[in-house]
Amino acid sequence: MAKEASNTNGSVTTKPPPSPSPLRNAKFFQANMRILVTGGAGFIGSHLVDRLMENEKNEVIVADNYFTGSKDNLKKWIGHPRFELIRHDVTETLLVEVDQIYHLACPASPIFYKYNPVKTIKTNVIGTLNMLGLAKRVGARILLTSTSEVYGDPLMHPQDETYWGNVNPIGVRSCYDEGKRVAETLMYDYHRQHGIEIRIARIFNTYGPRMNIDDGRVVSNFIAQAVRGEPLTVQAPGTQTRSFCYVSDMVDGLIRLMEGDNTGPINIGNPGEFTMLELAETVKELINPDVEIISVENTPDDPRQRKPDITKAKELLGWEPKIKLRDGLPLMEDDFRTRLGVTRKN
Ligand SMILES: O=c1ccn([C@@H]2O[C@H](COP(=O)(O)OP(=O)(O)O[C@H]3OC[C@@H](O)[C@H](O)[C@H]3O)[C@@H](O)[C@H]2O)c(=O)[nH]1
C-alpha cells in the first residue's frame, strides 16, 4: 500500500512511507483492512462507517468524544464483530493498530465550533498532530476532512484548490477555518518530512439524515422549522450563497479519495449554488407551504459566497455528486419527521 501518491502542490516527498505492520503481509494473517474513523459517531462520520462496514473485508474502529456525535447514529453496528466504538477525545493520544485513518473529528456547525473556540482549535491542531503521529507509528494512510472554510470569505468564485483563501486570522470563525488550515499544513509537513501517505478533502456544505436537529446549520434549521411549522429564519441579507452536497455523495467522494493515488487537497461538494432565500423558498415549497420566511440578524464573518470548482474531483477521482438539492431535501425531511414525531399533513 506504500505507493507514492501524486501531490498537487508541486513538491514531492523523497522519503518512503513508513512500513505498515508486518502482520499485514503475513501468510496466515486475516487480511482485513483496519480502519479508524475519528468523529465516526457524527453526521458524516456515521454515514461513512455504514459504507465501510458494508465491505466484509473492513474492520472499523470509531473514536468519538460525543460532543456533537451520538452513539445512536451507530446503534446498528454496536456489538458487530468487525466494529469497535471507543469514547475518545482526539486531543489525547490514541494507540491502535490500523491501516487507514479517516480523521473527521471536529464540531462542524458554526454554533458548536464557536461554543468553545479554544477546544476547537486544539481539536484541529493537537488532534491532527496526534492522528499523524499514529499514522507514522503504524504506517497508516490518513485522510483529513478539511473544509471549504479554508477559503474564508472567498474573493475567487467558484473556488478551486489553487486559491489560498481570504481568511480573518482573528475572527470568530478562525478557531475552525484557521484550525483546519493548520491541520492541512501539518498533513503536508508530515508527508514531506516523514513520508506519511496523506489525503486531504475540502468538504463543502453537506446535508442529510442524522444531522442534529438543533445543529444550527442552515439546512437542518430550515427543515426542522418547516416540519414544526415555525418561520424559516434567513440570516441577513439572504443573498449569501452556499452549495449543498447530499451526504451519500460526500461519503462516496471521501472513499474514492482515500482509495485513489492523489494526495489532494481536493474539493468535495455539489456545485449547485443557492442563495439562502432561494433555499428557504425551496424548503417552503417542498416541505411546508404554510410557513413564513423571516429575516434575522447574522453573525460576523459570514462568507458571502461559496461554490466548489470540482474539476479536480471529476478528473482525478471520477467523482461528481448525483443527488440534486430538490431530491435530497425530502430524504432528510423523512428522517426529521420521524425524530420529531411530526407526520406530514396531506
Ligand atoms: O438558520 C439559519 C442558519 C444559517 N443561515 C445562513 O446559512 C448560511 C450557511 O450557514 P451554515 O451555518 O449552515 O454553514 P456555513 O456555510 O456558515 O459553515 C459551514 O461551512 C462548511 C462546513 O465546513 C461546516 O459545516 C460549516 O462550517 C450562512 O450564510 C448563514 O448565515 C441562515 O440563513 N439561517
Automatic annotation (TrEMBL):
Residues of the region (Disordered) are 1-23
Q: Hey, which pathway is this one from?
A: Nucleotide-sugar biosynthesis; UDP-alpha-D-xylose biosynthesis; UDP-alpha-D-xylose from UDP-alpha-D-glucuronate: step 1/1
Does the keyword section mention Cytoplasm? yes
Q: Which SUPFAM superfamilies match?
A: NAD(P)-binding Rossmann-fold domains
Q: Which UniProt keywords apply?
A: Cytoplasm, Decarboxylase, Lyase, NAD
Where it sits in the cell: the answer is: Cytoplasm
GO CC annotations, alphabetized: cytoplasm
Domain of life, per the record?
Eukaryota
Q: What is its main location?
A: cytoplasm
Name the catalysed reactions: UDP-alpha-D-glucuronate + H(+) = UDP-alpha-D-xylose + CO2
Q: Where are the compositionally biased (Polar residues) regions?
A: 1-14
Q: Which Pfam families match?
A: GDP_Man_Dehyd
Matches recorded under CDD domains: UGD_SDR_e
Q: What is its EC number?
A: 4.1.1.35
Role noted for this protein = Catalyzes the NAD-dependent decarboxylation of UDP-glucuronic acid to UDP-xylose. Necessary for the biosynthesis of the core tetrasaccharide in glycosaminoglycan biosynthesis.
Give the record's family classification.
Belongs to the NAD(P)-dependent epimerase/dehydratase family. UDP-glucuronic acid decarboxylase subfamily.
Protein name, as recorded: UDP-glucuronate decarboxylase
